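Colleagues,

Please find the record for the two-part complex below.
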Amino acid sequence: MTKGFRILGILIVSIASLSFGIALAAPIFSVLPGAGELTPWLRALKPESMLEISYSILGGISQFFSHGTVLDFLIGFLLVFACIVVPFLKLLVLWNGILGGNLESNPFGKIISKTALFPVVELFIVGLSMLVIKGFPGGSQMNFETGFWYFLASFIFSLGWAFMKKTAHRH
Amino acid sequence: MKILLSILIPIFLIVTGFVTYRLIVGNHIEKWDANSTHAVWIEDMEVSAKPLSAGKWDDDGSAPDLVASLSWRDNVVLKTPEASNTLLPHWERTSIQLSDLLKSNFSPTELENIARIRATSDELLTIEARDVDILSTEWVGAISVPFGALSVGKNKILVNSPDSGIKSITLRIANQENLQRGQIPEKETTIKESVIILAKPVEDKPGAVEVREVGKQLESGAKFLKSLFDKGSGE
């Protein structure tokens, strides 16, 4: 890896890491409740039930854990794995590659390396969000918020760097 | 060493991004925008234990029945429903009045106790409170604040003056478009400076209005007689 290519890598993966940090803090989507033709009436008569609600990744996950049912715990763990663990491991592997480390020299590192380069989980989250956004009844709306775009940016930058590195390696 | 670094560097950057976002968003206050229409409503108030005129609020010893109003450009733009027997009135953003139910039809926006205001930062918003009884109303206090001192969200206005029966007011402000989308900002700002305490307005004594009306009638009658007299002497 040339010096210039390494600097480019540090820049791209730093942006991906910072974006991921912002994505964890910022609201990822918001839900605006609707009740069809009764929406303006409910907004007037029961305004607190019609307020827009925003969810961040950490806030959403903590709600699953606070509900206490087994299914909620399972979904919570799945979300922790998909939205926090996998993206972090991916960044870890990318940083290791930039620093010239050999993560795959031990079995644990090998597992991390294989897990992290598996972008399907993040794609699943993005795809699921796209589907959900269209499917609310009664005129309820779901909108992507700042956190979603930072999560997507982190995903694209880390995937982009992995792709660039692989292409450079082939040549 | 390289493995340790490849763990610590992303953790450091992720935490940096997380904390930076929280700090920026946490400290961001949306100030009054002269070009936007804002929804303004009074949420809470605290009034003094005794009226400025000393004595008791009501003869039976009960707390005042408070009605607050917002005035802008010398017009009352919001009048709250009556909050009975309280020193700490609270008003909801929406409420149904008996008069609404008597109408054959009314729109949901009529249930909102909000004032819609688009003003420059140096214009003044006046907040007044009165104790409304069956036969009379008693002035509690009034203050003015420049719109520039207000922010979108919860504005807690502290009034520390012996000349005002109002001790504090919580004023809610939201961007009109955002409010229609169900967004009510919760960021709280405390305002102590730039609060102007207004003196009690000069009020007419009982019967003064009637006396003034009779005076006007007499004056116009005298003018009429004078014109008749002038005509007669001319001929």
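The mean pLDDT of chain B is 85.

Comments are welcome before we finalize the supplementary table.
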